Amino acid sequence: MPLEAMQQVVSPAEGIVTYHARLGDTVRTGDVIATVVNPLGGSVAIEASTDGLLFARHDQPYAWPGKVIGKVAGKTPLPERSGKLLTD
Question: In what order do the strands lie in the sheet with 68-74?
Fold first, then answer.
């Protein structure tokens, strides 16, 4: 699978991560991979932006904006994946 097709699942918010998909699960675009729950109130669902295999999840239960919390290996190149792909 091409590196250009790997989605880095990024947390948009600060909070505790609860995963809805397990390692090795096949996900489809729009599937909820995880929810970030703010202990002070509110939560945000994080969806897959590509069809593929969830092959990595972060082992820390806490996330912050911009934190990579998982990776999905897809087949279709993603527009945001360009440049030096082995360094991110």
Answer: 6-10, 68-74, 52-57, 26-27
CB 48 within 8 A of CB 29: yes
Alpha-helix residue ranges (DSSP H) falling in the chain: none
- pLDDT digits (tens), the chain, 88 positions: 778 888 999 999 999 999 999 999 999 999 999 999 999 999 999 999 999 999 999 988 999 999 999 999 999 888 787 766 666 5
Host H or E run for residue 45? strand 43-47
pTM for the full model?
0.86
- The Cα 75–Cα 62 span in angstroms is 29
The residue assigned the tokens 């990595």 is 56
CA distances from residue 59 to 18, 31, 34 in whole angstroms, order as listed:
11, 21, 13
